[in-house]
Amino acid sequence: MPPIFNFRFQFPKWAPLRSEQTRIAAMSKKRGLSLEEKREKMLQIFYESQDFFLLKELEKLGPKKGVITQSVKDVVQSLVDDDLVSKDKIGTSVYFWSLPSCAGNQLRNVQRKLESDLQSSKKRYTELVDRCNELKKGREESDEREKALAELKAIELKHSELKEEMVQYADNDPAAFEAMKEAIEVAHGAANRWTDNIFTLRQWCSNNFPEAKEQLEHMYKEIGITDDFDYVELSPPAIPLRAVGDEESNP
Length: 251
Hints:
Elements: H1 15-31, H2 35-49, E1 53-54, H3 55-61, H4 69-81, E2 86-90, E3 93-97, H5 100-136, H6 143-168, H7 174-208, H8 213-222, H9 244-249
Antiparallel strand pairs: 1-3, 2-3
Helix pairs in contact: 2-4, 3-4
């Protein structure tokens, strides 16, 4: 009888690792690249070639790095805005380029600016701490301070009550009354000035269009210019101003 072989296939030890890598790569591809990852991929195109590109050329190279064609333009523009990619128009074409040395200089400039901002912030913080400590002097907790704060609070409360009480007497405020009188005089003068203008216009119409007298009279009545239309007379106020003290003494 021929021998019976008990053969079992075993996966190589590296198979699970490769399977895991494949799974992660598939998930990454499905998830898509973030904006920062897309920026890095596009910068790689510039750094590896150190050449000049048209936008349409970048749109063809982008997918090879995992950046879809539709997002290449926005990604490149973000790099231009951050001075990581240079852009210039030569003739009728717009070229983009970026060299590793230029990027290094830009990053060094950013670093210097951040360090300068950090030093300024530290200095400002020190100044504020010193100012805070200075303001604390003489404001330590004590019975005298508590008493002064209580008095201040009472005065502020009284001030608020007096302000509310003053609102009740606003109608008898002499300054407000004088302002109303001045406003009435201005309105009265304006009303009579326009009345005089209307009379002048009516006279001009009568002199230049005597045959249209009836039509003009009908139009005047339609717009509110009746026979009793006249200048406005300014009458004295119906209620004289009285002092607050008089109101309190005369019930």
